[in-house]
Amino acid sequence: MTSVWELANPQLRNLAVYEPGKPIEETARELGVDPSTIIKLASNENPLGPSPKALQAMRAALENAHLYPDGSGFYLRKAIAAKLSVAPENVILGNGSNEVIEFLGHAFLNPGDDVITCQYAFIVYKLLATAFNVRTIETPSPDYKQNLDATLDAITTKTRIIFIPNPNNPTGTLISQRAIDSFMSRVPDSIIVVFDEAYFEFLDDPPDTLRFVRDGRNVVVLRTFSKIHGLAGVRIGYAIAPPPMTEVLHKTRQPFNVNSIAHAAAIAALDDEAHLRETKRVIDEGRAYLQEQFAEMQIPFVRAAANFLMVNVGNGCAVFQKLLQRKIIVRPLKGYGLPEWLRISVGTMEENRQLIAALRDIRRSD
Question: What is the mean pLDDT of the segment spanning 112-125?
Answer without folding.
Answer: 95
